[in-house]
Amino acid sequence: MKEHRGRLTKDGIRIYEQSDFAGMLAAGALAARILDDIADHVFVGQTTGAIDGLITQMVEDAGAESATIGYKGYQHASCISVNHVVCHGIPGEKKLKDGDILNIDVTVIVDGWFGDTSRMYVAGKLPRKAERLIQVTHDALFKGIDMVKPGNTFGDIGHAIQAYVEAHRMSVVRDFCGHGLGRVFHAPPNVLHYGRPGTGAVLEEGMFFTIEPMVNLGRPETKTLADDWTAVTRDKSLSAQFEHSVGVTTDGVEIFTLSPGGKYHPTYSS
Ligand code: MF3
Ligand code: CO
Ligand code: CO
Known about the structure:
Keywords: Aminopeptidase, Hydrolase, Metal-binding, Protease. It is a single chain. The chain is of the alpha+beta class. The chain has a single domain, classed as Creatinase/methionine aminopeptidase superfamily (Creatine Amidinohydrolase). About 25% of the residues lie in helices and about 25% in strands. The strands form six sheets. Strands 3, 4, 6 and 7 form a four-stranded antiparallel beta sheet that branches. Helix 1 (about 20-40) packs across helix 2 (about 50-60) and helix 3 packs antiparallel against helix 4. The termini are far apart. It binds 2-amino-4-trifluoromethylsulfanyl-butyric acid and cobalt (II) ion (CO) (2 copies).
């Protein structure tokens, strides 16, 4: 039997109970801790497959489950997206080179609750242009998070992100979006990282969703490679992404996936 909690809005968005926030925080905290702990394992010569193997082990050691292994045929505990890979990079045998930037995206299930988060890392020395891209992407995510409170709309979130990114002469990817989550991985709404203020569904207390902007140094267009997963920038420009899972509270937002170590900057491991 499928478990139903709370109610659905007219837009089909689930409203969870006060007591459900604790479950989301437990799942989110584990995903965030794994992203903290993996930092020391990102270095020149390391393979993304080895990083993924460590993440698989960390999920298992925590007594949790990977949400991505077996999801639509995906076989790994993380997506690792290097340089011009926008998202859904498949871990493999390729070795990281000096100056490579990478997004590591982990989703875990703890007691049936989903925690989904991603951050940027660097192998070796962080190139100046990449550092700027990563900083803008991180700050854009928080411009979006700053808009999360009852009464604001999803368009307010998208607009805040887009305006910030484009003011820095970078572009927001349109082909992928954030999503509702909770007792499921992907649920309504589609959380767009662009838009107009005041448009879209109205935020209500008890909504759980991700915000996960992908930002390109060049043009926003992407294409998906023959493996049916790996999305890359069409113009081969560098791309970055950060993702948090959040909940709407009485008067604002709770971020479920904050780093326990206060880590987010890619150079924290070096
Ligand atoms: N974690 C990704 C997201 O942010 C989804 C990855 S699905 C996978 O929604 F199958 F590619 F792992
Ligand atoms: Co997500
Ligand atoms: Co994710």
